[in-house]
Amino acid sequence: MNGHDLEPHDEALERRAREAFEGSVARLDEDTRSRLREARRAAVDAFEARRRPAWQGWVPVAMAASALLVAVLLWRAPGEPPGPVVQSGGTEAIEALEVVAAGDDLDLVAEDLEFYAWLEQADFDGNAAGQG
Amino acid sequence: MSTPATLDAPAAARRVRTVRRGREEVCLDGAETLDRFLAGVERPAFRIAQMALRDRDEALDAVQDAMLHLAQSYGARPGDEWRPLFFRILYNGIRDRQRRRTVRSRLFGLLPGRHGRDEEEGDPFELIAGDSVDPARQLMNDEAMARLEVAVAALPARQQEAFSLRCLQGMDVAETATAMGCTEGSVKTHYFRALQSLRSALGEVY
Q: What residues does each domain of chain A span?
């Protein structure tokens, strides 16, 4: 005997205590049950919130930003072009910029400076080149 | 007396990580498993807390705190570990409340014309029989349960824990040791002494 052995009387006591306890648990009132359910839901919600990856918190922000961007694009699209308006006279500037940006024909440009100067003069005079 | 179905739930929650839906066995996700586990232990846990604290609202708060703490701190642990962890958290909360109550009763006891809560409680038998407002207290009309509660409440805290977990919750010695944060030998000693005290207190009834 190890000094902790249960006597038959103890086993009967255990059994009756367990029965009384289980009976009282089964007869809990509805209000208490309801509060326990609410507490459980709160705990499970807290568990799910903790388990959710941090980046998921940014999903609504990203979606709102995307929606805003689409709305701006749709608002700008009908009627007028989305980019800056280029008037006549500005076209040449853009073409010249493209030549410079291409970067491969700059030597040719330097060799023929006189030609380009003439071309520019002709444009200013309005088809002067064709007449001359 | 047959065992109520609700009390089988802790064992089921502890054991089952899958559930049968129709013809197939579906693996439960973490939240669902946790929900099942808590659904199984919430009522017995409440009654155990109520027996220790002798106050319905404090018992509800203690169970709620324990659920939340388990979910937040140990929800990711294997489900098999939840039960002893949950009751360990619950008993820590119960002890904290009992300490606060003792301090409060001492402070109020110092004030003239005020009595501590322990003094107001008086005879626990009268408390159980005379409280007709709290529905939970009405359940204690069962004389056996009422006497058991009084007798358990009179036990030292560690003996209460050992008795509640081993006998009322049906935990084995190892689980009880984990829940109580002590050795299995200590559990056996506390439980044996608890039974001795209860035998002498309840011998006539039980």
A: 91-121
Residue B109 to chain A, least CA–CA distance (Å)? 32
Q: What ipTM does the predicted assembly reach? A: 0.72
Angle at B77 between CA B75 and CA B81, to 5 degrees: 105
Neighbours of A63 (CB within 10 A): 10
Q: Counting Cβ atoms within 10 Å, is residue B71 exposed (0-12), middle (13-18) or buried (19+)?
A: buried
Read off the tokens for A107: 């030597």
- As a whole number of angstroms, the distance between CA A132 and CA B75 comes to 91
Burial class, A20, CB count within 10 angstroms (exposed 0-12 / middle 13-18 / buried 19+): buried
Residues 122-161 of chain B with CB under 8 A from chain A are 135-136, 138-140, 142, 144-145, 148
pLDDT in tens, A42-93: 999 999 888 766 666 677 788 888 889 988 888 876 655 555 555 555 566 6
Rounded distance between C-alpha atoms, residue B39 and residue B43, angstroms: 8
